[in-house]
Give the backbone structure.
Amino acid sequence: MLCRALTVTLLAAATAVAADPLPPTVAEVDKLIDQAQAFLLSQAEPGGKFMKGEKFVLGISGLAAEALATAPKAIPADDPRIAATLSYMGGFQQPDGGVYDPAEGIGNYNTCIALMLWTATGKGTTAQISKAQEYIFSLQNKDAKNPSLGGMGYGSKGPGWEDLSNTSWAIAALRGSGVPSSDPRMQEALKFLERCQDLSSVNKLPWARDSGGAVYSPDESKAEGSWNREALKPGEAPPKLEPYASMTYALISSYVVLDLKPEDPRVAAALGWVKAHWTFDRNPGMVNTAKKPTADQQGLYYYFRVASKTFEKVKPGVIELKDGTKVDWRRDLFDAIAKRAKIEGDKAFWSNEQDRWAEGMPTLTTSYVLRSLKGIRASL
C-alpha cells in the first residue's frame, strides 16, 4: 500500500513538472531573427533610410537600425547600412538638441530613438547625447496644476498633451543613455506614471479604481473613455478610462527601468492586470465595435515589443495566471509572432491590417517584431 501511494505521488509530481510550458528553442528563434534581419537589411536605401517615402521615415529608419544593432545577433555598427543611418539621424539633430525633421515634428519619439541607436552602437558623441537628453527633459510638463505634470509628449503639440507612450520611450532612452533614476526629473516622470495607472492607492484622479492596468494619459484611454476635468460638473463622476495591454506593459517596463521591484505594489498590481488579460492574439482592452470589428488588433505589434521589453526586465519565467493556468511568455509571444510572419524566401516581414499608429508599414512592424524576438532570444 505504501509503495503504491509513493508511486501515485511521484507520478503526480512528474505530471505537474511536465505540465509546465516550454519556451521556444534557440534554433526556432534564431531562424526567425535571421529572416527578419534579412528583410530589414533588404530595405536599406542609400543615405541611411530603411524605407521609401517621406512619412515617419526618420524615426522608422532609426528603429530598424536600432533593432538590427541590438544583441543578440547584432549587426555591427560599422556595417555600411547601420553607419549610414547613424549619419542620417545625426544630421537631423537641431540646435535645441532634438533629433527631428522640423517639417514633421514628433521630436520626442525621434530623439528617443536616436538615443537608443547611439546606445546600442556606442557611436553617439558625448555632446550629441547630452544635448538630446536635455531636449527630452525640455518637453516635460512642469505645470504643477496639470495632471500631466512630469510627463512627456510628442514635442510638437506643446504642454498639456503628455502621454504614457511618449513618456515610456523617454524614460527608457534617458536611463539607457546614463540618466540615473534618482534624477528629480525622472522622479517627476514616475509620478506621472502613477496618474496613468488605474490604482486608487497612488492615483487620486477621480476616474481611478483598482484594476492595476494603465491608460494612455491621465485624461484619456485610447481603448475607451476620456474626460475633461475642467468641464466636469460638481459631484459628477468622470467616465471610466479603460486600461489596455500595450500601455500597461509600457507602465510596468517604465516602473522597472526606474528601479521599482516586481513586488512593489504598483508593479504587482499592473502584473495582476496582465495575468487577468493574458493573450497575444489581440491587444487586450482595445474594444471591437460594429464599425471596427477588429479594433482589438490595433497596436498589436507595438504591444509585442513592449511586452518583450517588460519581461526582459522582470524575468518572470513561467507565469501562473489567475485561473491557475501556467504560461511561458516566450512561447506564447513567439507563437503569436511566428504565425503572423509573411515569409518570402530567406526573409520574413510583418504588417498589421489594422494600420492605426502606422502599423501597416512593414519596416515599422518588422522592427518591432525583431526587437521582440531578440528579447525572447536573450532570455533563453
About this structure: The domain at 25-378 is CATH 1.50.10.20 (Glycosyltransferase).
